[in-house]
Amino acid sequence: MSDVIELTKELKKELDELPLFIEYKRVSELVSSNEELQELHNEICRISKSEDKDKHNQLLNKYNSHPLIVNLRELELEVSEYLSSISQIINKRD
Questions:
Q1: Distances (CA, A) of 60 to 35, 49, 66, 84
Q2: In whole angstroms, what is the distance from residue 75 CA to residue 63 CA?
Q3: CB of 56 closer than 8 Å to CB of 48
Q4: What pTM was computed for the model?
Q5: pLDDT tens, the chain, 94 aa long
């Protein structure tokens, strides 16, 4: 069992060094630290509790169309597909 754990740790280390994963982490950090996006997110949450659906949708569209968010979503998709491929290889039964 420890072999599996060691191999998993090695796989994670290798993944962490791939340009795709490095870029994903970088963009994710940029999103997390972006004040404009944080303010938009807070405003969306605040308005979602009210009755102003139009304003909520406008803010949500603005948030979702922000270049950092668009980039992050695309990277999330690529990372997910990559990890799915790895999972299929690991779970493949001969």
A1: 16, 14, 10, 29
A2: 17
A3: yes
A4: 0.83
A5: 688 889 889 999 999 999 999 999 999 999 999 999 999 999 998 887 677 888 999 999 999 999 999 999 999 999 999 999 999 988 886 5
Residues present in the chain in total: 94
In this structure, the number of other CB atoms found within 10 A of the CB of residue 83 comes to: 12
Task: State the SS3 of the chain.
Answer: CHHHHHHHHHHHHHHHCCHHHHHHHHHHHHHHHCHHHHHHHHHHHHHHCCCCHHHHHHHHHHHHCCHHHHHHHHHHHHHHHHHHHHHHHHHCCC
Nearest CA-CA partner of 63 in 78, 50, 46, 81: 46
